Amino acid sequence: MRIKPSIPKGTRDFTPDIMFRREFIFKNVKSIFKNYGYSQIETPAMENIQTLTGKYGDEGDRLIFKVLNSGDYLKDIEIDENFSSKTLASKITSKALRYDLTVPFARFVVQNQEKLTFPFKRYQMQNVWRADKPQKGRFREFFQCDVDIVGSNSLLSEVELIQLTDDVFTSLCIPNVKIFINNRKVLVAMIDKMQSSEYFSDIVIALDKIDKIGIDNVKKEIMSKGVTLESCDVLNDFIKCNSIADLENLLSDSDSSSNGLDELKFIFDSISKLELKSCEIVFNITLARGLDYYTGCIFEVVTKDLNIGSIAGGGRYDDLTSVFGNNQLSGLGISFGIDRIYLVMEELGLFDIQIDKDPSVMFINFGNVEALECLPILQELRTSGIISEIYPDPTKIKKQMSYANNKSFDFVVMYGENERKRGLISVKNMATGQQEDLSVNDFIKKLN
Question: What is the pTM of this model?
Answer without folding.
Answer: 0.86
